[in-house]
Amino acid sequence: MSVVIRLSKMGRKGEARYRLVVMEKRTRRNGKPIEVLGRFEKTTSGSKNEINKERYNYWISQGAKPSIAVSQIVNKNKA
């Protein structure tokens, strides 16, 4: 089973809100996740994100691959 950490879209049209989720690679975007790691919301004044870093690091250690967008969000949050 190939596991990835990626964004799952939620919210209304025009209001981009996302969840950071762990799921199998072949599952659809808004399918049932294995675990929800946090939230990300892009606003005009910046971005709001809440990420459970302990669980994120756990899944990375277990071999989960983050998507490009997720890795950029997490790296921006570290700096």
Task: Give an overview in words.
- The chain is α+β, with helices and mostly antiparallel strands and 79 residues long.
- It has a single domain (3-78), classed as 2-Layer Sandwich (S16 Ribosomal Protein, Chain: A), CATH 3.30.1320.10.
- The chain has helices spanning 53-61, 68-78, and strands at residues 3-10, 17-24, 35-43, 46-51, 65-66.
- A 5-stranded mixed beta sheet has the order 4-3-2-1-5.
- β1 (3-10) and β2 (17-24) form a beta hairpin.
- 18% of the residues are buried.
- The model has no long low-confidence stretch (mean pLDDT 89).
Write the topology of this structure:
Layout: E1 3-10, E2 17-24, E3 35-43, E4 46-51, H1 53-61, E5 65-66, H2 68-78
Parallel strand pairs: 1-5
Antiparallel strand pairs: 1-2, 2-3, 3-4
What is the strand arrangement across the widest sheet?
4-3-2-1-5
Average pLDDT: 89
Number of helices: 2
Low-confidence stretches: none
- Mind summarizing the main beta sheet? 5 strands, mixed
Rg value: 12 Å
The number of strands is: 5
In the CATH scheme, the class would be Alpha Beta
Helix and strand content put the structural class at: alpha+beta
Name the CATH superfamily assignment: Ribosomal protein S16
Number of structural units classed as domains: 1
The N- to C-terminal Cα distance equals 32 Å
Strand content: 35-45%
Give the second-level CATH assignment, the architecture: 2-Layer Sandwich
Give me the strand/helix succession: EEEEHEH
In CATH, the topology is named S16 Ribosomal Protein, Chain: A
Helix content: 25-40%
